[in-house]
Write a structure and sequence with these properties.
The chain has 143 residues and is an all-beta fold. The chain is built from no helices and 11 strands. The N and C termini lie far apart (52 Å).
């Protein structure tokens, strides 16, 4: 069995209804419990900057933690919706096991009301996790 744990943290539980042709046991429930161990943990996993005023500049810290057993290399970090969002640092980040690195997401709301939706893409050297995506959202309101 394979489970996509992209948006799952800590634990996972799934019940599967099984029906058989066995006359003594026609149906039963199979329960799968799993502990999700993130190799690369991002906090916050989703960034909602809420309502911001036009012509505002906001900084949002992001913590990247290596929970694995090997050194992680982040080769590139890009932001889609680049007109309003930027991130630093944006490449060549080395995180040893058990260590964290801090990133800073910067929002420039611009001069007109709008909804800003974007993503942060973190490229890694982890074979099972070549890219980690973090959604970003903000609502720009007139003053």
């Amino acid at each position: 069995m394979e489970i996509n744990t992209t948006h799952i943290r800590d634990s996972y539980k799934k019940e599967i209804n099984v029906t058989t042709n066995d006359p003594n046991k026609g149906a039963f429930i199979l329960t799968v419990n799993a502990t999700v161990r993130e190799t690369l943990s991002i906090t916050p996993p989703y960034i909602n900057l809420g309502s911001v005023s036009v012509n505002s500049k906001i900084n949002q810290p992001i913590k990247v933690e290596n929970k694995g057993k090997s050194t992680v290399k982040i080769t590139a970090i890009s932001v889609k919706s680049a007109a309003n969002l930027s991130i630093t640092p944006d490449k060549n980040i080395i995180i040893k096991p058990g260590k964290t690195k801090d990133l800073m997401l910067k929002l420039d709301s611009g001069n007109s009301p709008s909804t800003i939706e974007g993503t942060i893409s973190i490229k890694t050297n982890i074979p099972s996790l070549p890219e980690k995506i973090i959604p970003v959202r903000a609502e720009v309101l007139a003053r």
